[in-house]
Amino acid sequence: MRLSLSSPCLIGIILCLLVSGLTGWLSAEHVSGWYQTLHQPDFNPPSWVFAPVWTVLYVMIGITAGLLWSDRKKFPLLFSLFILQLMFNFSWSFIFFIEENISWALIDILALWLCLLVVVLRAFYIKKVAAWLLLPYLFWTSFAAILNFYLWQLN
């Protein structure tokens, strides 16, 4: 199970980091404004934790994007599901922070989680490296979904 950072993987990393950076920039004022007014669960991590965690995860997601892009013709359903979960991922910040809609964000992150779970399970049979790279993302998304649920309940 050897991993090399090919051009598609590097492009995937760059695209994921650029899009996440743009999303973060667009939602920054809402994070420091509206989000701070919400009742937070006791297990909510400090705000500074999210940027480094997501940066590492987006690098891993970018590598996975490159790996799956390279095999997209052999495994079109896997690649399509991967793109779908990315769309749910990137839309969550807009729904939650910009639209300030906790309930729709919860629906979005549950769809993201389900889609990501299918991608990881399918990738274990097709492209094990991709599955292993996505596992931390699945765990973090699970935590984020629980956090989103509690924010919905408390607010």
Molecular structure report:
The protein has 155 residues and is mainly alpha-helical. The chain has one domain. The protein has helices at residues 7-32, 50-70, 76-98, 102-126, 128-154. The N and C termini lie far apart (46 Å).
How does the SSE layout of this entry go?
Blueprint: H1 7-32, H2 50-70, H3 76-98, H4 102-126, H5 128-154
Helix pairs in contact: 1-2, 1-3, 2-5, 3-4, 4-5
How would you summarize this macromolecular structure in one to three sentences?
This protein is mainly α and 155 residues long.
Task: Give the distance, in angstroms, between the N- and C-terminal Cα atoms.
Answer: 46 Å
Integer tally of domains: 1
So how many helices?
A: 5
Shape: globular
Helix content: over 70%
Tally of strands? 0
Order of helices and strands: HHHHH
Major beta sheet summary: none
Rg result: 16 Å
List unreliable stretches of 5+ residues: none
Work out the strand percent: under 5%
Assign the structural class, choosing from mainly alpha, mainly beta, alpha/beta, alpha+beta, or little secondary structure.
Answer: mainly alpha
What's the overall average pLDDT, rounded? 90
